[in-house]
């Protein structure tokens, strides 16, 4: 379904702000002063999703250059509000370097909730695939799991509403579209790969939460790789990264009270992020050489959070490089 700007979309431009305060002796009043540092222009489109039955924001950064004849490559990202500032900065830099080689930077599209509407419970529902039952570890905060299983509906909105909107309003090369996700978003990215391998031209999964309903995660990839009816004309480019320390407690976590630290340690050991990523990468390499062109990296010394900006930078170059 193609949406138009005249339906429920509005376009705005905002500047990302870095806020600080002057030293106390330099202030002439009690009012805290703000220092504004300009950054990249991000365009905000508010689109009503009939699939999700709520308004959503599409946050877009585009190169300030004339579009190539075939359009710009594009990266679609989950967790758009937090990811697009990093994407925009790195894409701008990569685009300036890419000019030397006639390689345009990609358009970046972040899927985001309306202001003050996004919650962790909503994110968990949206980014977890449907299943008849779930095998999940106890949460370290001792809270019960929220509703699960909205991932396939969320992907339907991406395919049928968000992507057509971007394609109708931006000069996009529809043969160079990449999906990016981190954590639960990376797990949903891999789910999209095995359930809709033709939806995107490349997939980037940073620190995928493969522990979530783990038998389903591994089994669906094995079924995809074994399916004789899945026969892409060329292997699908896939980038997967994991921080080498994601299964370990970091220095800050070590300062937690004993009981909280023990729960956090049990959570990380149960999730076993690095081993799961290595297992999945091994499966893709051994069984999927004709289906997947895998680039798998264990990022030395990085954790679940620091792996994300490194992978974003690599994803931009990944999307810019012709295949």
Describe the 3D structure.
- With about 325 residues, the chain is an alpha/beta fold.
- It is about 35% helix and about 20% strand.
- The protein has a nine-stranded mixed sheet, sandwiched between helices.
- Helix 1 packs across helix 8.
- The model is unreliable at about 1-40 (pLDDT under 50).
Protein traits:
single chain, 323 residues, alpha/beta, 8 helices, 9 strands
Low-confidence stretches: 1-38
Number of extended strands: 9
Side-by-side strand order of the widest sheet: 1-2-3-5-4-6-7-8-9
Structural class: alpha/beta
**Rg, alpha carbons:** 21 Å
User: Overall pLDDT, averaged?
Assistant: 89
H/E element order: EEEEHEHHEHEHEHHEH
Topology:
Elements: E1 11-15, E2 41-49, E3 54-61, E4 72-77, H1 80-98, E5 107-112, H2 120-126, H3 151-169, E6 172-182, H4 184-195, E7 202-206, H5 214-226, E8 236-243, H6 258-271, H7 273-287, E9 292-299, H8 307-320
Short description:
The chain is an alpha/beta fold and 323 residues long. The chain contains eight helices and nine strands. Strands 1-2-3-5-4-6-7-8-9 form a nine-stranded mixed sheet, sandwiched between helices.
């Amino acid at each position: 379904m193609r949406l138009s700007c005249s339906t429920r979309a509005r376009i705005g431009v905002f500047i990302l702000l870095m806020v600080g305060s002057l030293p106390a002796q330099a202030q002439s009043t009690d009012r805290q002063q703000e220092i504004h540092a300009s950054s990249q222009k991000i365009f905000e489109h508010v689109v009503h999703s009939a699939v999700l039955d709520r308004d959503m924001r599409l946050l877009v950064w585009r190169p300030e250059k004339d579009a190539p004849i075939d359009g710009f490559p594009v990266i679609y990202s989950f967790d758009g509000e937090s990811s697009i500032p990093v994407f925009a900065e790195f894409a701008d830099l990569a685009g300036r370097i890419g000019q030397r080689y006639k390689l345009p930077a990609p358009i970046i599209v972040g899927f985001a909730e309306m202001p003050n509407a996004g919650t962790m419970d909503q994110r968990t529902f949206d980014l977890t695939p449907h299943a008849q039952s779930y095998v999940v570890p106890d949460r370290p905060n001792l809270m019960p799991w929220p509703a699960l299983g909205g991932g396939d509906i969320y992907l339907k909105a991406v395919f049928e509403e968000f992507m057509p909107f971007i394609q109708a309003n931006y000069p996009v090369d529809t043969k160079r579209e990449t999906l990016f996700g981190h954590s639960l978003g990376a797990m949903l990215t891999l789910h999209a790969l095995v359930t809709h391998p033709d939806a995107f031209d490349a997939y980037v999964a940073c620190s995928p939460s493969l522990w979530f309903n783990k038998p389903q995660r591994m089994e669906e990839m094995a079924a995809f790789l074994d399916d004789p009816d899945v026969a892409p004309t060329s292997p699908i480019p896939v980038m997967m990264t994991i921080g080498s320390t994601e299964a370990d407690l970091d220095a800050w976590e070590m300062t937690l009270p004993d009981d909280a630290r023990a729960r956090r340690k049990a959570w990380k050991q149960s999730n076993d992020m690095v081993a799961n990523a290595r297992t999945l990468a091994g499966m893709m390499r051994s069984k999927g050489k004709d289906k997947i062109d895998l680039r798998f990296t264990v990022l030395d010394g990085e954790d679940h959070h620091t792996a994300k900006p490194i992978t974003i930078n690599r994803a931009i170059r990944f999307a810019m490089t012709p295949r």
